[in-house]
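Dear all,

This email documents one entry for the complex benchmark we are building for the journal club exercise. For each entry we list the sequence lines for every component of the assembly. Then comes the predicted three-dimensional structure of the complex as a token string, followed by one or two observations. Please use this as the template for your own entries, and keep the labels exactly as they appear.
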Amino acid sequence: MGRKILLVTTDQQRYDTLGCNGGTLARTPVVDRLAAEGIRYERAIPQSVVCMPSRSTILTGQHPSTHGVWMNGVPLPVDAPSVAEVLHDAGYRTALVGKAHFEPYVDPFMRFTENSMSRTGTTPPNGTHRGFEHLEFATHGAMGFLHYARWLQQEHPEVLGQFYPAVDTDFQVNSAGGGDTGAPQVSVNEVPREWYHTDWVADRTIAWLDSLAAADDWFCWMSFPDPHHPWDPPQSEVGRIDWRDVPLPAGYPETAAEREKLLDAKPRHWRLWYDGTLVSNYEAPAKWVPATLTADQVREVNARNAVECELIDEALGRVVAAIASRGWADDVDIVFTTDHGELQGDFGLLFKGPYHVDGLMRLPLIWRPAPSALVTPAVVRAPVGLVDLAPTFCDVAGVERPSWMQGGPLPANAHAPAPERVLTEWDSELFGVAVRLRTITRDGCVCTAYKPGTVHDGSEGELYDLADDPLQRENRWDDPSRRSLRDDLLADLWDAQPEPRVPRLQLEAPV
Amino acid sequence: MHIARPPEEVWARIGDPARIQEWFPGIVSSAVDGTTRVITMASGLPMPEEIVTHDDVQRRFQYRITAPMFHEHLSTLDVLDAGDGTSVVVYAADASPSTMALVIAGAAGSALEHLRDTMEGAT
């Protein structure tokens, strides 16, 4: 019997939303305890700041250029490499419960397995799908074809109308506001807590674990759709945090003049989006103008986001207790992370897009090794990537790391070898707007080069010193005193680019 | 999409609006009544359409989706003679909202690949 693995992911969660990372809004005692017992990473970085490419990186252990999911709406090929398949082949029982999103959601033709499986059950027709023998899918609400939506439709149809409609009548991300402040994607949801997707994901995870034999080795990816917008947690829980008491985040410039000055020092798409004159990607509401965001709206969004983080923590606590009740407590590695962050008021912005700053790039990552492994608790400050998760799982399971994995095992302490650099990329081509970013994090700096597109000519970039500018307010791209540093980082960035997939995969849906 | 079969043969497969479910994965049935066609997708959603052009000479088929979720739509399917006993099939879709054009185009691209594979495999 080997070490079992529980991978817990959330969606669009910031680093600073956890108590163990200094967060003060949400109470997260379960994750905080895992951090105290394990390894807490202070700079975990995604290889993409949107869902499908980033999740594909977690599964494949490859950068987006290589696995080929270059933007949301590009499906990961069914035969793509998968760490779940490696573990399944090694004898592990495997499951994915919750949000997968390796395939597009907007799929009326039901071309993709994630959408069609809810009709046929939880076991793939061919035994496994992407290496998982059990799959139960959920996303942010009651729309769509996934298991959670179908369960609600069948068991609790009376609450279907409570969930915020993620898209509007034009099939754009909804910009409608609600709550007390009219903030976009905020809505009152009277769904009972036990029917909300956070608890459903935990319930279905526990049910699958209960189906296993005591001696089974297993890998379970439990994937919560929250705290990704819409911010519509069960209304019964919203009173936990009064948004009026929520302090404005450090990254929120309180005056329009300050916001505009900061944005004007960055490549031009920042300000263009803020002013409502450019929509570069599908992931933020196209009809919402960030310049209209108010301080109270930021407070209300952050309050509701924190409530969602608390619900996740409590749901995780139930799963951890269920694991203990099976007698597995000493033999389970638990990894807690997310796919990417959320701007959540930084620079006067919400949501996400081609913006490689901490709000989207600095992620929560906790690895609590199985207690039986006797790993000393640690804090790792060196940058690591989500691309490093798959190799880590191979090491935990004691199986050889496949050569197609591009990362390395996570360092288990501050002195263990860490990646020399961490890379992040962005490519989007949507409705005539093309944006391409390549980013390197190394030596305490984040450096982003902009490839030519429809907004940038290839000369723009961003350079931030994380030590003396933790909020990335001062773009030093054109600072003569940093020129040699910039040149060195860029040379390394281009030298280290991962092998691209050829031919390029096709965009097949907006998301 | 290039298909290594004669255009007459390709048109015989895709030019009949009542047989679209035979080559377009994700469409499970179709019912044609004059210039109206209603397809049913694998999700169970019905999609009413107006047949705009059905030209056996030019080998052109055009249709508009008339479901309310589309503000505008026109898809055009042409089977062109490549001159060497093979065909080029062009499936063009214009739609508003533009997000739906992406969905139609993605599914149509996949359908053409399926058509090519089945027709070329049938030699």
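Observations: Chain B has a mean pLDDT of 94. Chain B has one domain: 2-121.
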